[in-house]
Amino acid sequence: MTSALRAIGFDADDTLWHNESLFSLGQEKFRALLAPYHSAEWINRTLYETELRNLAHFGYGIKGFALSMIETAVELTEGRISGSEIGQILALAKAMVAAPVELLPGVEEIVPRLAQSYPLLLITKGDLFDQEGKLARSGLGEYFTHIDIVREKDADVYTAILAKHGIAPENFLMVGNSLRSDILPVLAIGGRAAHIPYAITWQHEAADAPEPATNGFHHLASLYDLPALLQTLPANG
Length: 237
Ligand SMILES: [Mg+2]
Fold this sequence. Notes:
- With 237 residues, the protein is an alpha/beta fold.
- It has 2 domains: 7-17 and 101-232, 3-Layer(aba) Sandwich (Rossmann fold), CATH 3.40.50; 20-98, Putative phosphatase, domain 2 (DNA polymerase, domain 1, Orthogonal Bundle).
- The protein contains 9 helices and 6 strands, in the order E-H-H-H-H-H-E-H-E-H-E-H-E-E-H.
- The protein has helices at residues 20-34, 40-58, 62-76, 83-98, 107-115, 128-138, 155-165, 179-188, 226-232; strands at 7-10, 120-125, 146-150, 172-176, 192-195, 217-219.
- It has a 6-stranded parallel sheet, with helices on one face.
- Strand 2, helix 6 and strand 3 (146-150) form a beta-alpha-beta unit.
- Helix 2 crosses helix 3.
- The radius of gyration is 19 Å and the shape is elongated.
- The chain starts with 6 loop residues before the first strand and ends in a 5-residue tail after the last helix.
- 30% of the residues are buried.
- The chain binds magnesium ion (MG).
- Magnesium ion binds next to loops.
């Protein structure tokens, strides 16, 4: 690939700030609540199946997660879950929504620096209210030229976003933690993608990594490695 880089896209959750750790912690509290009824393994499996089923109804994000926890609790207790226990699930979800946004290492220094040289796009899926709130609390909003909060991140959605902003895929690099949502669809449309794994991956986002030699694919250990990668790419002309 020899095309110049003209814009960089960033995923938000688990790329700019911690997110999956919040869900893991929420799930841990949910398991504790249902511990008198079922094993941790069974609760996890049922919750995950419920979440997948509910994606079509509620989309990604904390609100959908909360409804899936309630549905799972009703199912696993065969309706015996109490009103006060449901109240605890709702309190747990509200605490997740209000949780402080904790930036990942390097974000605070590298994002503002890159914003001086490239238009930066924030491309994230999830709940609009939740994602806008996190972006505001992150203090990063001013560095992004465009913010796209979408229902799903697949090749068609990336094609539409890039077309809307007048960016050719070969001039675009996407940075993110999810192979399924941030890397594979961007490579599929002829863009570049830098994968920076996060410590925990939600099962739904798991995918096989492309071959290391795949055209346009880069694997980085952390965001600190991104400036060095940019130096190796054709200059922004
Ligand atoms: Mg992510």
